[in-house]
Amino acid sequence: MAFINMKHREVQAKIVYYGPGRGGKTTNLEYIYQQFRDRIPSEMVSIKTHGDRTLFFDFMPFDVGKIRGYDVRIQLYTVPGQAKYDATRRLVLKGVDGIVFVADSLAVQRERNIESFQNMLDHLAGHKKSIQDIAFVIQYNKRDLENQGIPMLSIEQLDADLNPRKNIPTFPASALKGINVVVTLKKIIAMTMTNLNRSLT
Amino acid sequence: MAKGRGMIMTREKDAVTLDEYAMGEEQIGQIEGVLDRLVAIGVHCVMVIDMAGNIVAIRDNGKTRINVYSLAALAAANFGAVEAMAKLVGEEEFSLLFHKGAQESLHFLKINPDLLMLTIFGPEMTLGLLRIKSSETAAHIRSIWLR
Q1: β-strands B105-110, B97-99: how paired?
Q2: Distance (Å, rounded) from C-alpha B147 to C-alpha B136?
């Protein structure tokens, strides 16, 4: 539910990084924070447990610049991936304009990816939305672990599980090494802004 | 998208079904004018935010140095969490949400199902006066929102 302030010519929109626990959502935001410090007007907010897991969400505002004369500020959030924080995930999805689903490429995480994806669809439905209504991309994270002898899900397998119609933009990535993190971000911002563009006069 | 003019109130209760919403110059100006009255009686900063954490309008006394965007995101999440806690104990909502600090305190007020008012004030302001004035302000904002 992006908000357009026509008096101050400002747009605020919400993008959420969603996915299973330890999949790399927070790492995505941390990389973005390091790379775009000049566009982020404040510190990154992280509400973590003592074990350094996301408890509530991570948050940071991101200044995209001007589009059609409007200052565009994207609010980037993550959700806590652990199953027990289900109510929090629903809360963070409220008013979402775009989602990056961060899938874990480790073979052992296959079921968790699928569960998390379904959980996201359920929560969106609870907010009377679907992934067709919003900007949506999938990131296949941890691809840097290929060729290290660790059992991995192939891109084909991930597509079959999460993107069977092949109609969602997907990005193989490594949040830890920063590979395709910015590409993913640019795509979700572009899609979010395309949805908003018709409203900016 | 319809522009401005209280579109949220014409929709169903859970407004997240909207893709986006806009408020015009006149409507924002009126809300800012109402908020200015709260600043005039001594609050440090007051903002109207939506339940997604966006800042709809903000006014301050010119002396505050606050990361308002993070504060708005956390305030909306905090309110949502407290509302969920209320339901768990059998309440629809907790009508007063107030965090007291030594120099700065926070007061939350639900304006309508879509909007919250967050006020930051110091020890020189009494909570009783703030509650009365905040309620009046919220009523004004509801009437502007509906126009």
Answers
A1: antiparallel
A2: 17
What ipTM was estimated for this complex?
0.82
Q: How far apart are CA A85 and CA A88, in angstroms?
A: 5
Beta carbons of B23 and A7 less than 8 Å apart: yes
Q: What is the pTM of this model?
A: 0.88
Using a CB-CB distance cutoff of 8 angstroms, which residues of chain A are in contact with residue B67? 41-43
Residue by residue, pLDDT tens for chain B (147 residues) are 333 333 333 333 333 334 678 889 999 999 999 999 999 999 999 999 999 999 999 999 999 888 999 999 999 999 988 988 999 999 998 877 899 999 999 999 999 988 999 999 999 999 999 999 999 999 999 999 876
Facing A95 at nearest CB: one of B28, B50, B70: B50
Nearest to A18 by CA among A193, A184, A197, A195: A184
Residues in chain B closer than 8 A to A1 (CB atoms): 15-16, 18-21, 50, 52, 54
Q: Kindly report the backbone phi and psi dihedral angles of residue B27, in degrees, each rounded to the nearest multiple of 5, phi listed first.
A: -65, -45
CA atoms of B103 and B120, how far apart (whole Å): 10
Chain B partners within 8 Å of A41 (Cβ): 67, 69
Identify whether the C-beta of residue B49 lies closer than 8 Å to the C-beta of residue B75: yes
Query: Closest chain A residue to B12 measured between Cα atoms?
Result: A128
As given in the structure block, the two tokens for residue A11 are: 């747009």
Task: Calculate the dihedral angle through the C-alpha atoms of B25, B26, B29, B31, rounding to the nearest 10 degrees.
Answer: -120
pLDDT over 70 percentage in chain A? 99
